[in-house]
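Justification of computing resources. Each target in the renewal requires a structure prediction run like the one illustrated here; the chain below, 68 residues long, is used simply to show the kind of job we budget for.
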Amino acid sequence: MKKIFVLTCYNLALWGILGFFATLLLGFLSCCAHLSENFFYGFLVIFALVGLIATSFCVSRGCKKAAK
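Resulting structure tokens:
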């Protein structure tokens, strides 16, 4: 159980840092390119969903390796 918690926290922290930089970059680009708020928030939601899915796959693979 501890390994699952540690892997989950580690992966979500990495995606959180990437999400912070993606927010800054996309905010700058959407401001300069005059993109709508819907595009900005839509991209951030898609990015968050990809992060959650990737975290779940990585944690499940990491726990399967440890079980063998």
